[in-house]
Amino acid sequence: MFEVLAEIVSNERLTHDTCLMALRSEKLAQTAKPGQFVMIRISLGLDPLLRRPFSICAVKENLLLVLYRVVGKGTNLMRELRQGEKLQVLGPLGKALTCRKKTSGDFWLEEESASRLSCFSTSFTGRR
Predict the structure, then answer these.
(1) Element (H, E) at 111
(2) What is the distance, to the nearest Å, from the Cα of residue 111 to the centroid of all Cα atoms in its chain?
(3) CA distances from 18 to 10, 12, 31, 55, 103 (A)
(4) Most buried by CB count within 10 Å: which residue of 41, 73, 98, 122?
(5) What per-residue confidence (pLDDT) applies to 65?
(6) H/E segment holding residue 7
(7) Buried b (16+ CB within 10 A) or exposed e, 44-70
(8) pTM of the model
(9) How far is the C-alpha of 18 from the C-alpha of 38, rounded, in Å?
(10) What separation, in Å, do the N-terminal and C-terminal C-alpha atoms of the chain show?
(11) CA–CA separation, 26 vs 56, rounded Å?
């Protein structure tokens, strides 16, 4: 786990309430994996005071990609951040998703990862 000052490379709005942020941090990108998360401090001031947790959706070279939904004050402020600004980021935290490849080319999630994904899928779709 590291605490770094990561540079925002992009903060792209995908839908009215969903954004994809790319953060440059070689140190984090070397160790982070999808399924883990980072704690991001949205501003250097006291409002909002607490860091927000965000899942890592991908790692590409020295970039960490974070997909987020705007649901409150913190993520609304985050949506307004621009390229070149810097954020305090703590991570990577948690366990990464693990996959193993079948001979046919399909991927299977390892049992622990599948269980976490199943919980997410159930809460997202409302179905089991």
Answers:
(1) helix 111-125
(2) 22
(3) 14, 9, 26, 14, 36
(4) 41
(5) 95
(6) strand 2-13
(7) eeeebeebbebebeebeeebbbbebeb
(8) 0.76
(9) 18
(10) 34
(11) 14
pLDDT given at position 101: 61
Tokens, residue 62: 């020295």
Distance from CA of residue 38 to its chain's centroid? 6
CATH number of 2-96: 2.40.30.10
Instruction: Please list, in sequence order, all residues whose beta carbon lies within 8 angstroms of the beta carbon of residue 73, skipping any fewer than 6 positions away.
Output: 48
Q: In this structure, what token pair is assigned to residue 17?
A: 């309430």
Q: What's the one-letter identity of residue 85?
A: E
- Which amino acid is it at 101? K
Binned average pLDDT, 10 residues per bin, the chain of 128 residues? 96 96 96 92 87 93 95 94 96 84 55 43 40
* pLDDT at residue 115 in the model: 41
19 beta partners: 13, 68
* Cα 4 to Cα 13, 23, 30, 43, 92, distances in angstroms: 24, 11, 13, 14, 11
Which part of the chain is CATH 2.40.30.10? 2-96
